[in-house]
Design goal:
elongated; about 800 residues; 4 domains; alpha/beta; single chain; transmembrane; ATPase_P-typ_cyto_dom_N; Rossmann fold; P_typ_ATPase; about 15% strand; ATPase_P-typ_transduc_dom_A_sf; transmembrane helix; Calcium-transporting ATPase, cytoplasmic transduction domain A; 30 helices; 8-stranded mixed beta sheet; disordered C terminus
Length: about 800
């Protein structure tokens, strides 16, 4: 006969470590710093602005080069926010790293996860997490929860020779298991390897800005060359400008035209708005790893999530109890089963109701509150998932007799339970079909005999023989369900009211998934088995539209479902907490990880609910919608500036005229018409889901508006040239007219106006007055006295305002006409 298991010796452990057979594995908990820096620094926007910034520094014009602050600050904000998220996740992963108890030289020893080697004997007790794949050597009522890996909430029995997977938890019993696959070769690590790196959130606004910058880049060099040539000609020609050094001024004005075409302020303000939202959300325990994630959540129209860990908290709760035969002590017996030290998660659900009842029954009998107090040595058979029942026998007291608690089809099989058994089994089947877990409590007058067998298999055979010989009478049907998170129903209701479609993708049985969905407020008659779904993307997307609640979904199927819905035009968010969710999270438009989940899901997600509260999402959505709605308002202003800057550059370059604005003067108009208003716009509320088509809407507004402003400036310069105004006077008039028309355009976007918005516009108008009237301010911006050019600027501004109002009213009329049937 084989001797006791002793595990590996110290020498054997060292040999395996040298052979690379340890459990050391560098899990991806977040994106590396170099990747964060690269993705924020190496952008087309930074290239264009950086080259212009460098050119002005070379020319010695430090003041006009201050716009480079936008590029530097924008990059710094992105790097700082994402690095902070990385530090938070890495610290969280370090705190959660599990330990393992192994047999070394016959002695149970607690070691770090990385110190486990292949062939180590793991000592398993309730509450332990497996740190490596293993095979069971011996087990006594051993059960595991593999929901983090498979999505199935039901505990899995673990008899000898069964394979166990790293990442699963021991929920009942004890056992020994030999580690077979460690490190990168374990099942959980192989699954998450398919989701390497962190997915990037899809940002329509940033994508639109990249597209605009790409368009501008194509025309940038030819327009810059055109403007530069015009500036040199206005200075007397290339030869003269190079000879007298005035070429520097021409080059600076050419660069000014280039900077005006690039919406660098919009990129900066977008980053600031998203970063402010990220900081606010972090205070609410929502970690934003990728700034555009806030925007993406505001646009999501399909939200996918697993059942376990999202709608439910992974524990079981008593659903109901149907009494079939009111025998004395039945409730106290249920309390006894629930308070056993080796009780599994299903039995522990009985404590909340029957623990107190059992105590009352015991007290009424003048004994201790526990049923066994009347019988100091009750006979017990522990629960085993393989046989699906447990039993206890009391020789005296209010609960005298033998009691069996287990699955109805096992306890009442083979005709046990008399004529009532058939009706009880039918009722149990009906309850199970609704997604509930069903147990039956049965009683017998035959004393429960304790088996003296030391061998596990022999003891199990003796216990089963007693059950077959004992006549049983059903006493009660008990139904148990997964505990719904207290925030689940309200959060589901919020998304349904907002028109966001919900999809539950679970590895659990379809009927169980459907029951949880109904309890959370999702109207569904049934869930379907994922194995019956088509595999082609179009067919799969169509099937998911018809059947939003899916059971028996594998990790690969979750990924395929997310991709299919994206290919159908949906913006998909995926919420998950287990390794089985990592693939889907990394392929969704937006991955959202529960902070209580495994590190792999947090690594591939853009949002992390640090405390695992599902109800954080509505608040996050509200932030996203407010930010994106207000950024879209600002984008229209910035892109209108891009349009008129391009038109002005082409016009003044073609006419060989001096460009009317310096970079610093462009900065002054931007600050008054766009930058400062952004501080107020950020606080405006928005509740509607952000819609696609941002760039189309923005261009429809900014192209005609930008053309009007370009005509205003061009006409004003023509008039000033006729008046033989110098460059400083021209710049002053253009700043005045451009800012006034820009403020009117801002007012159009702020309508309907209230007191707060009117005060904002008045404050900005006073800012314009201070810019041109305060001597040291006007000197900094190279502006002259406004009085000589004020009439011309006022007329140009009035014409521009009139044209904008005509455009606005024309647009409203067109929209109304389009709505008519």
């Amino acid at each position: 006969m084989a001797g006791p298991v002793r595990g590996l010796s110290s020498a054997e452990v060292e040999e395996r470590v040298r052979a690379g057979l340890s459990n050391r594995y560098r899990a991806v908990t977040s994106r590396p710093v170099w990747q964060i820096v690269r993705e924020n620094v190496l952008t087309l926007f930074n290239l264009v602005v950086g080259l212009s910034f460098g050119a002005l520094l070379v020319l010695g014009d430090v003041v006009d080069a201050l716009f480079g602050f936008f590029a530097i600050a924008n990059t710094a904000i992105g790097v700082a926010q994402e690095t902070r998220a990385k530090i938070t996740l890495d610290r969280l992963a370090l705190l959660e790293a599990p330990q393992a108890r192994v047999l070394r030289d016959g002695v149970p020893t607690l070691v770090a996860r990385d110190a486990v080697v292949r062939d180590d004997v793991l000592v398993l007790t309730a509450g332990d997490q497996l740190v490596a794949d293993a095979v069971v050597l011996s087990a006594d009522g051993l059960e595991l929860d593999e929901s983090m890996l498979t999505g199935e909430a039901d505990p899995i029995p673990a008899e000898a020779a069964r394979e166990l997977l790293a990442g699963s938890f021991v929920v009942a019993g004890t056992g020994l298991a030999r580690a077979t696959r460690v490190g990168a070769s374990s099942y959980a690590n192989r699954i998450t390897a398919g989701a390497r790196g962190t997915g990037r959130a899809t940002s329509e606004i940033r994508a639109a800005l990249r597209r605009v910058i790409r368009w501008v880049s194509w025309i940038l060099l030819p327009i810059a060359a055109l403007v530069l040539n015009g500036q040199m000609d206005a200075l007397g020609g290339w030869s003269t400008a190079l000879a007298n050094g005035s070429w520097r001024e021409g080059a600076i004005r050419a660069i000014s035209s280039v900077i005006g075409m690039v919406p660098q302020g919009l990129v900066f303000i977008t980053s600031v708005a998203l970063a402010v939202a990220a900081v606010a959300l972090l205070r609410s325990r929502v970690l934003v790893q990728d700034l555009p994630a806030v925007e993406t959540l505001a646009r999501v129209d399909v939200l996918c999530f697993d059942k376990t860990g999202t709608l439910t908290d992974g524990t079981m709760v008593l659903d109901g109890c149907e009494l079939l035969d009111e025998r004395p002590g039945w409730d106290a017996v249920l309390g006894w089963f629930g308070t056993r030290p080796d009780a599994n998660v299903t039995a522990r659900s009985l404590v909340e109701r029957f623990g107190a009842v059992g105590a009352a029954v015991g007290a009424a009998a003048g004994a201790d509150s526990r049923p066994e107090a009347a019988d100091p040595a009750p006979t017990a058979v522990g629960f085993d998932s393989a046989r699906k029942w447990s039993a206890v026998g009391f020789a005296a007291g209010p609960a005298r007799g033998s009691w069996v608690l287990g699955a109805p089809d096992v306890v009442l099989a083979e005709g046990r339970g008399g004529v009532a058994a058939s009706a009880v089994l039918t009722r149990a089947g009906e309850l199970a079909a609704s997604g509930l877990r069903v147990l039956v409590l049965a009683a017998s007058a035959v004393p429960l005999r304790a088996s003296g067998e030391r061998d596990v298999a022999a003891r199990a055979a003796a216990d089963t023989a007693w059950l077959r010989s004992a006549p049983l009478e059903p006493v009660a049907l008990i139904t148990v369900r997964e505990r719904l998170r207290p925030d689940a129903a309200a959060t589901v209701a919020f998304f349904r009211e907002q028109g966001v479609e919900l999809r539950i993708l679970s590895g659990d049985h379809p009927s169980t998934v459907a029951a949880v969905a109904r309890a959370a407020g999702i109207p569904v008659t049934e869930a379907i088995d994922a194995r019956t779904l088509p595999t082609d993307p179009a067919g799969l997307a169509a099937a998911l539209d018809r059947h939003p609640i899916i059971g028996r979904v594998t990790p690969e199927q979750k990924r395929d479902m997310v991709l299919a819905m994206r290919s159908a035009g949906h913006i998909v968010a995926m919420i998950g907490d287990g390794a089985n969710d990592a693939l889907a999270l990394s392929h969704a438009d937006l991955g959202i990880a529960m902070g209580s989940g495994v590190a792999a899901t947090r690594a591939v997600s853009q949002l992390v609910l640090l405390d695992g509260d599902f109800d954080r999402l509505p608040q996050t959505v509200a932030y996203g919608r407010r930010v994106i709605s207000n950024v879209e308002r600002l984008a229209k202003l910035f892109l209108a500036k891009t349009v008129y800057a391009i038109v002005l550059a082409i016009v003044f370059g073609a006419l060989l005229w001096t460009f009317p604005l310096l970079p610093r003067q462009f900065a002054a108009t931007d600050g008054l018409t766009i930058g400062l208003p952004a501080l107020v716009l950020a606080g405006l509320a928005a509740t509607d889901r952000a819609q696609a088509g941002f760039l189309r809407r923005a261009l429809r507004f900014c192209v005609p508006s930008g053309l009007v402003i370009a005509l205003v400036v061009t006409g004003l310069v023509v008039a000033l040239r006729a008046m033989q105004a110098d460059a400083t006077a021209t710049s002053t008039a253009v700043v005045l007219a451009l800012t006034v028309v820009g403020l009117w355009l801002l007012g159009i976007l702020l309508r309907p106006l209230d007191l707060r918005r009117v005060l904002l516009l008045l404050a900005l108008a006073l800012g314009l007055a201070g810019t041109v009237l305060i001597p040291w301010v006007s000197d900094f911006f190279s502006l002259g006295p406004p009085a000589p050019v004020l009439p011309a600027a006022a007329v140009a501004a009035a014409l521009g305002i009139l044209a904008l109002e005509v455009l606005r009213r024309s647009g409203v009329t067109t929209a109304r006409r389009r709505l008519r049937p």
